[in-house]
What does this fold into?
Amino acid sequence: MVDWLDWKLWGIVLLCGAATYVWRALAVAIGGRVSPESEAFKLFSCIAYAMVAGLISRMVILPEGLLAEAPLSFRLIGVGAAVAVFFGLKRNLAAGVFAGVTAFAMLITFAG
It folds into this structure.
């Protein structure tokens, strides 16, 4: 059982939070000076998209936990539905995510 009064646990939480907020504060401080058309901004955008694509690919191809119990075909159909709706509705991210999750959940519920 976790002891919620353990100061080491709270210290770790505070350090992790501080590490996150340092970068956010830095982004706010220099964000107004960076042009969205600059090469640096384009580079960081590409890196961010590549990281998201890598994480999604890993979740689909090499999942862990409960997701690993779902067949690969179900996971691929969910991703396919998400991508199709995303582009079909003029790059609507919320609709794409909702469609992918719904397709996957329906496959697990009714075909799994």
Observations:
- The mean pLDDT is 90.
- Helices lie at 7-31, 39-61, 72-88, 93-111.
